[in-house]
Amino acid sequence: MAPVKVYKNLIDGEWVESSSGRTFENVNPANEKELVGIFQKSNQQDVDAAVAAAKGAYKTWRLVPPPKRGEILFRAARTLAERKEELATQMTREMGKILDETRGDVQEAIDMTFYMAGEGRRLFGQTTPSELRNKFCMSVRSPIGVCSLITPWNFPMAIPSWKVMPALVCGNTVVMKPATDTPLSMYNLVRILEDSGIPRGVVNYVTGGGGEVGERLMTHPDVRVVSFTGSTEVGRRVSEACSQTFKHSCLEMGGKNVIMVLEDANLDLAVDGALWGGFGTTGQRCTAASRVVVDKKVYKAFMDKFVERARSLKVGNGLEPTVQMGPLINEGQLKTVEEYVEIGKNEGAELLTGGKRLTGGEYDGGHFYAPTIFGDCDPKMRVAQEEIFGPVVSVIPCDGLDEAIEIGNGVIYGLSSSLYTRNVNNAFKAMRDMETGIFYVNAPTIGAETHLPFGGTKQTGNGHREASTAALDFYSEWKSVYVDYSDSLQRAQIDA
Ligand code: UN1
After folding, report:
1. What are phi and psi of 100, to 5 degrees?
2. Which residues contact 71 (CB under 8 A, 6 or more apart)?
3. Tally: H helices and E strands in the chain
4. DSSP string covering 45-88, please?
5. What pLDDT does residue 2 have?
6. How far separated are the first and last CA of the chain, in Å rounded?
7. Cα distances (angstroms) measured from residue 278 to each of 134, 195, 256, 275, 295
8. Model confidence over 93-109: pLDDT tens digits?
9. Residue 395 C-alpha to ligand 1 middle, in angstroms?
10. CA angle 35-36-40, nearest 5°?
């Protein structure tokens, strides 16, 4: 067996070990005995060195013309595309989701990188008339400074790319921290950026735990911007930490997304959507369709098909071509799922399929759990209210569109929602009334594209959006510029 590689931090253009002298293991969630790599267990000193490097590099990077920054991103996007298959395979080994999905994850990074590369030649501001004569007004985007990018394990390359690409094209420098479960995919992304010509210190990469590395990244006085995707609990801590020095924070947190199926829906299509939305990525997406609200008139017909299809999903190692659902990321996540299934049973939800860990044979050493459906849920049950982040779907019967919308909106989160109907009036009503940042018609709650704003309302986020030009609004600040060429003092509001 080839020796397991030890990966280092990237600080100021050098690949270095942590000053802690400690490391941690990255293992395959389909089989914990398989070691993917050894990574640095970094500490505050490492973060401080990375922030200092980013701060130094900012002085020159902010002056590089954005089209030139974009050219580096174009090169990175092309390399990502050339190496897509290899990157996806490595991602499945560290994260567990099936190859089709890790290919999609890398593709999302490719799309985002091309998109933001193109922004290098746009970064549009506005020009607008002045209320005064011989005076010119415009708004321009200014970079902000050092950004801390703290990312989750469920989209190990796509989500880092949502953050780093707009940050860079806007002229910021970054310190990136991957989730401890999936540091390899971010390492690959960072290496590709480095090979594409990103100057030293502009992109820094520090691995390690949230307590030490994450905490310092969100409190360091020289950090101006923190972008975080993860749990609502940690997001609250990020928000508190940032408020001390008014760092800008972009928070993408939990979801309890809903698919609503009306009487007139194409039921087979809705079942396809509920399966993909609920069990894709083993339910470990913040956009996962963890609730399905079905009109009572078609409830039985829908459930018969949905349960049967869920039961026949092939669970296993995501590298196997026939496998449809991979493992959970780690033992902790599996325990959470087990706890919620117990909660659901005690609340009186009807366990229709799944509800058990898969063990023995190919499942040994992995964190596998059967696709699980709870039927006849009350909308107030905890399994219908709280984010589980696993392959558990809670189905709630309803009476018509209005009640579906009320149930759909009746959670603390507001990321994604979807409606299956053939009635255009219903579709537009729900589009208007669903309080989520993302809404789908006749498609599940997952599958956002990179050129549209991504994010949620209520306790899912803090009002910012990622992806699209919305990301530029977060990674730049507006500077309003007034040029008076009248050669006289003109007082706004007074001489106008
Ligand atoms: C996430 O679940 O954390 O829309 C991100 C989607 C993907 C991104 C999901 N494009 O499901």
Report:
1. -55, -40
2. 117, 120, 197
3. 14, 21
4. HHHHHHHHHHHHHHHHHTTS-HHHHHHHHHHHHHHHHHTHHHHH
5. 72
6. 79
7. 60, 38, 11, 5, 18
8. 999 999 999 999 999 99
9. 21
10. 100
Q: Which residues are registered as beta bridge partners of 177? A: 150
pLDDT in tens, 417-462: 999 999 999 999 999 999 999 999 999 999 999 999 999 999 999 9
Residue 257 C-alpha to ligand 1 middle, in angstroms? 12
Ligand 1 site residues (CB inside 6 A) read 108, 154-155, 285-287, 446-448
What's the token pair of residue 301? Answer: 């017909």
- The one catalytic residue in 286, 377, 398, 466 is 286
> Quick check: is 137 catalytic?
no
What tens digit of pLDDT does each residue of 267-288 get?
Answer: 999 999 999 999 999 999 999 9
| Structure confidence at residue 1 as a pLDDT band (50, 70, 90) | low
Rounded Cα–Cα distance for residues 231 and 336 (Å): 13
Cα distances (Å, whole numbers) of residue 187 to 160, 192, 208 = 10, 9, 13
Q: Which domains does the chain have, with CATH numbers?
A: 9-253+461-480 (3.40.605.10), 258-441 (3.40.309.10)
Q: What pLDDT digit, counting tens, does each position of 338-388 carry?
A: 999 999 999 999 999 999 999 999 999 999 999 999 999 999 999 999 999
What token pair was written down for 399?
A: 């009476």
Q: Which atom of ligand 1 is nearest to the CA of 438?
A: 4
- C-beta separation of 51 from 175 below 8 A: yes
Q: Quick one: which atom of ligand 1 is closest to the CA of 286?
A: 2
DSSP H/E element including 83: none
Number of the ligand 1 atom closest to the C-alpha atom of 154: 3
Task: Report residue 311 as tokens.
Answer: 């039961």
Q: In what order do the strands lie in the sheet with 477-484?
A: 126-129, 135-142, 477-484
Element (H, E) at 250: strand 248-252
Give yes or no: 32 in active site. no
- Alpha carbon of 284 to ligand 1 centroid (Å): 9
Mutate to test the pocket of ligand 1, among 103, 229, 285, 389 (most ligand atoms within 8 A of CB): 285
Structure tokens that stand for 367 in this block: 């964190």
CB 94 within 8 A of CB 30: no
Tell me what the pLDDT averaged over the chain comes to: 98
Could you tell me the distance, in angstroms and rounded to a whole number, from the CA of residue 124 to the centre of ligand 1?
A: 27
Residue-wise over 149-173: b if at least 16 C-beta within 10 A, else e? bbbbbbbbbbbbbbbbbbbbbbbbb
Catalytic member of 252, 263, 387, 466:
252
